[in-house]
Input
Amino acid sequence: MFGLGFLNGLFLFALGAIALPVVIHILNRRRLRKIRFSSLEFIDELNKRRMSKINLRRWIVLLLRTLAVVFLVLAFARPTLRSNASLLVPGGAPKNVVVCLDVSYSMGAEQEKGTVFTRAQNLAGQIVDECGENDVVNVVAFSTHPDVLFETGTRNRQVVKAAIKGLEVTAEGTAIPAAIGTALELTGGAEAATREIYVISDFREPADSVLAGDLPENTRLILLPVYRGAIDNVSVDRVFTPRKLVRPGEAVRVGVAVTNHSRERSADFPMELSIGGKRKAEKLVNLSPSSSATVTFVITMAQWGTYRGRVAKDRDRLPIDDDRGFVLEVSQQIPVTLIRGKKWEQDGKPDTPAAYFYVEKALNPRGSSEGEFSVDVVDQNALAVANLPDKGVAVWTDPEGADPRRFELVERYVHGGGALMVFLGDDPRAAWREERFRRYLGCERMAAKEKTDGVKFVSFSSDHPVFGMFNEEELELLSQSRVTRYVGATGVPTDSVLTYFDDGGPGVWECRRGEGRIIVVAASPDLAGGNLPLSPMFLPFIHAGVSYLASAGGSDPRQECLVGTDLVFDLPPKWSVQTGDLRVRTETRGDIKPVFSETKEGEIKAIVSRLGDVGFYTLLADTTQITEACVNVDTRESNLNPRPLDKTTLGDARVVEASGNLARDIRRERQGREIYAVLFFLAVAALAAEAFLGRRA
Amino acid sequence: MARRQRQAFTRFLDPVVASRLANMELKARLIVEGYIAGMHRSPYHGFSVEFAEYRQYMQGDNTRHIDWKVYGKTDRFYMKVFEEETNLRATIILDKSGSMGFTSAPPEATQTPKTGVDKLTYGGLLGASLAYLMIHQQDAVGLCLFDEKVRALTPHRSARKHLFYLLSTLERIAPGEKTRISPTLHYLAERVKRRGLVVLISDLMDRPEDVLMGLKHFRHRGHEVIVFHVLDPREIDLDYRDEVEFQDMETEKKIRVEPAFLKEQYSKNVRDWIRMLDRGCKSHQIDYNLLSTHTPFDQALTAYLNKRVRMG
Output
């Protein structure tokens, strides 16, 4: 909708001068010269043909003269054209002004004269200078969240300018609609007749959300983009650390995603990975324009511990996204939860030890707490989420008869990246006889089998890491053990079978479920079912299987924690009861008391809301470090190429491309664009046309 | 001295100057004498056979007329000058229709030698001058005045008394009614039996085919014809500014006109009309002379005398 306003409206009375050309026209007609002519024979003939054209031209000339007068009068009245006619309010009335200043990380981009944010601050200062003495001014510094600087606004412009000068760029992203919403709330209760909201931003908000819909009456929303031209930028977008458990001496692959946002220039730069401040690896990266790549570093950590890592590239115009931190945990032990199954419950005190006993002995033969595995034994019917290790393996012996809810618990654990090793028992009433569980364990049918002379393991898959680490003699040794009671499974995909029984049935197989893996052994390692626990290869087999699952589990990288989101720490069970002593130590803001939350599964989580700064956050219990996380910038706004504002998302907002004279631009936006020059031109054009036609008429 | 005297006479060739003189005889005499004075000498003596006088030979005179007897007696060259004696019958036909009253000149008080006079005044002065010249050359002159019909017709006479009659007739003329040239010409062609010279002075505001038919009738009867087509300059170029209301001087019809728009095409049409008349006259051995009311009379008199010489 367009509206026409006049700065010198009184001049419109001069429109009465339209009568002037009409009067002149009439007088000219009356002052007709009369001439007696010898003969009209020649004239009469020509005149008949020409007179109609002449009359038409005469009317056009009159029209042009009238239009020239109209255009001149309108030009002197200084008309203005604006998009919202409802904003025709007196210019001198007090206003309520809210300046929304973008403090998102992309505003820290460096230009020829300081950063983009410096320019935004200057613009904000100019806007405040343009306010009248009676105008009430407020400032909203916004990134993903808007912060109101003054509770009720102020008329003291110096205070406002000082507050603007004191603002700094944050590491957060942008949420303009939220800032506008806050500004509208601030102006909503204002007494002033006119409300003006200025949004100074680089408008890097990734989503095409509607910036402003229909504005309230007498409210003007002016957007001031502060970018000038493209700024080449290469951002480090993400660091991929393995989700699996990392052991000392193990090669770790760390992936780094980088993007060249420039549309024209190739990026050629060195990138280095450092651990604990020491450089571990370096690579040269070349990226063509508008492309992304993942750079992979392979490092080895000799000692166990929690390491702070950092990936950095050379500095460019936007430094904040040039490096990225990560946390690498190198475990001393593999946590194993040994779930002891039905046989233990039923038999109470069996004649021979149950399968879990041999597995536990295999994992921790000496019963010390400093072995390769830290074993936690739990009954299958007492199993809870907290019992399942985050980076470790669950070993379940004799799962038959388990409560289906426990199965579902384990299912979710595996699906989320956990690892499971199952030793199937031989109870014909076993819960795994249900089709759902059979399918989950990777076979179509299962049947309890018994052979007096036993079956042995044959056809080992030496390509698989579990059996690949053994030589032929060791495998031969393993195959000499006899299994008398076992589970005959059918329908297992052959490519997932790691070894067979010599009766042709699958003995050990692997299946993937969700993000996790399962190794199924079709026999229970107890002496009632054979002599497998007595085999010298039983311990190496258990070690190999659990180590493999611990290393291979969780193929997807860990979710990074980004600025502006909540940081959630999963508390290990032993700390869950001491939440009062827990705190989070930050690099910039000291210690923060986290908020604790318990899930319905009984897990305790420590939460730090709305992270504002990048860096490492350490969860401490007194001086003991429990865990650590790194918070990085969300690089979705790192593309610094010019992006015109999409008109469909603007609503009633007006865009002012701030030129050298912001005051003039703002006035123009307030009062509309003056179009007197166009009218002067039209008046001159009308006069020129009149002169041309009038001369011939 | 002689030069100054000659200039004093020649200024009467200007129509405006001549028209301001008191009476028609004076006007005619001064025009003719001014014309002759402007030619340094009169080449038109000597057509007659009756001796008039001697005069001293001047350089450029034809040696044929030197009197050798006198030379033998006086040792000087004398020319024999003869009185003219012809029996030419000239008929001056003057158009006095309403359109002949047109002039683009300002009122008389503000006239200059270049502004011209109305067409009828110009035609009257021209007719008077011709009559004066003809009668002084002993030719018999008749006069016919007409508009839509013949309004006055005088018989052919060569006596000087007749000249006064003609001049007084011309002095009294006023613009009449509509123009109908063709019937007049046919009527006169039938009336003037004896062959002679016909001088038509008119603006020819009639259908050109009819005008040419009338003139052709004279030629058919064996007359020599001279046409003096008198027009005001603005009748040719329609040089008016602004919108005007024209009123026809013969029909009183009124029309509003933007002359600037018509000027170009009008002028072209008028020139085509003139060209058509000229071509039509030439095709019948009729002398056609277009005269503007600004044109000095010597041009017309020369045309007449040339014609007279050719007729012998």
The longest strand of chain A covers residues 445-455. The longest helix of chain A spans residues 41-76. Confidence is low (pLDDT under 50) at residues 84-91 of chain A. The CA atoms of residues 255 and 296 of chain A lie 4 Å apart.
